[in-house]
Structures are given as structure tokens and as C-alpha cells.
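Hi D.,

Good news: the full-assembly prediction came through. Inputs first.
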Amino acid sequence: MRDLLAITKALADENRIRAVALLEGHELCLCQIVEVLGLASSTVSRHMSILHQARLVETRKQGRWAYFRLADEDAPDTVRDAIVWVLAALARDKQGKLDRKELKAVLKMEPEELCRRQGECKC
Amino acid sequence: MRDLLAITKALADENRIRAVALLEGHELCLCQIVEVLGLASSTVSRHMSILHQARLVETRKQGRWAYFRLADEDAPDTVRDAIVWVLAALARDKQGKLDRKELKAVLKMEPEELCRRQGECKC
DNA sequence: TCGACATTTCGACAGATATCGAATTATAGG
DNA sequence: CCTATAATTCGATATCTGTCGAAATGTCGA
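Then the structure:
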């Protein structure tokens, strides 16, 4: 029950669902997700930690960068099915489509350049 | 996105998940769910309302009693898949099994007798 | 019509959660 | 070694949420 609840709670937030949608098919670093969601990096870090604790997202650290990806085939059934369900629901969703569009633009920038840009523009 | 979030939020509470589990295969009236969950009836009513707004649960009123059942085949795909997912996850769960066991005892009482019993024992 | 009663709604309150900015940690490169 | 920087952790705060009991609503039976 605790595992199940961790998953539903992790998915009970709009920005975390958007993050899951962004990760479909890609591995992304934190600053890329920050760019699309438009939240403070500390906030996004927290969100990703919650998704990770629910085992929906895997983490990999490389140098200064933290990379995130969706859990893969060897995750527990409950986790895998949850991801399949969310992605299917989002496939019919408007906000999901908007985010994916913006993500394409963000993906064109190298992570390094992107992080630099975030440092500059304190808008 | 709003629909999807309504579902994940509805499922992001332990007592609401237990309620969904109880409804598998049955239609139950409010006082039966109250008996198993051990919460104030006003609280359970609120929980069922949240599940209903997410379209996970259908409501039927008959006389003084309110009956609840899981959404059926003509619910939206996202709703149906969510129910399937939760029930599958709960099938492997300990608390789910405990609740189902207690439910059997509660189901042996008629709703009418049950409600009377709740009135008497203000423990 | 009146009283009993199952349910819902309302008001209050405690605890959880999302968010930010500041401080901290860890790492790459000069 | 020292600095810049990506990420995380921490402290504060505002909002949301679960819960209860009291009041309101609607329905049955006398």
C-alpha cells in the first residue's frame, strides 16, 4: 500500500505529471526540465526526488549534471503500468502537447548553453 | 490534464484507495464503507464525492441510502484504466486483503441493522 | 404532520505540501 | 588550490487537504 500511495501521490501534481511527460523517450538533465516547467531549480529538484522515491524515475549523475529518465522494464509491475497509464492519458492531452512542442526547442540547445542562459536571464 | 489530475488526486489518499478496493465487485452504501474505514460519515461522504468527481465512482440514491459502485465500461478510457491499475496493484497488497476480510463480515449485516448499530455505539 | 434517521454541507482546525531564495555540496577547469 | 556552476538541502511561508462535529437536507413511517 505504501508503494502504491507513493506513486499516486507523486502523480497528484500537475508539474510532476508534466515532467513525466517530458521524459517520454528521452533522458533529460535537470536544467532542461527547469526550462520547460518554468519553476525554480530547487523546486524541480524536489519534484524529481519525489518521482524517484516512487520509483517512477531513474537518476544518473554525470559530472555536475543530473540526468533523469523514466523507469524501464525491470521496474515493478505497478510502476510500469502507472507510467503506461499516464502516458496514454497524456497522449490525448492539450498541455502535454504544448510541453512536448516547447521541449523540442529546448532540446536543440546543448545543456551547457542552456544552464548558462538561465544564469544570465534573471527575469 | 484536469481530468487526469482529478484522478491522480482522488487516488492520492489511503482511505480513498481503500474505498475503491472495497467497491470491487460490489455496490455498497455509505454506512458500510464508514464501518470498514472507521471514519466519521461526513468524512467518508466527502471522500466518495471526490472519487465521484473524478468519475471513478458512480452514485445512486435510493430512499435514505446512497449507494456507490466503481465506474463501468462506458467510462472514459483514462478512468477505466486507472481502476484496472489500482485493483491490480491492490491485489498484491496486504492492507487491501485485510479490508476485504473485514468487508465480508460487514456485508453479512443488512445496511439497516448496520446503521442502527453505528447510532448506538458512540464509542 | 411529525419525528427518526442516512446523508450531505458547513465551519474550524491541524497537518501536509508546493514554492522560493539562501546556504551547502560537489565537480570541472583554469 | 580556487573559482564558477549544477544540483541539492534547508528554512520560511502560503496554500491545500483530511478530519471532525454541528447544522442542514431529504426521506420514510407512524
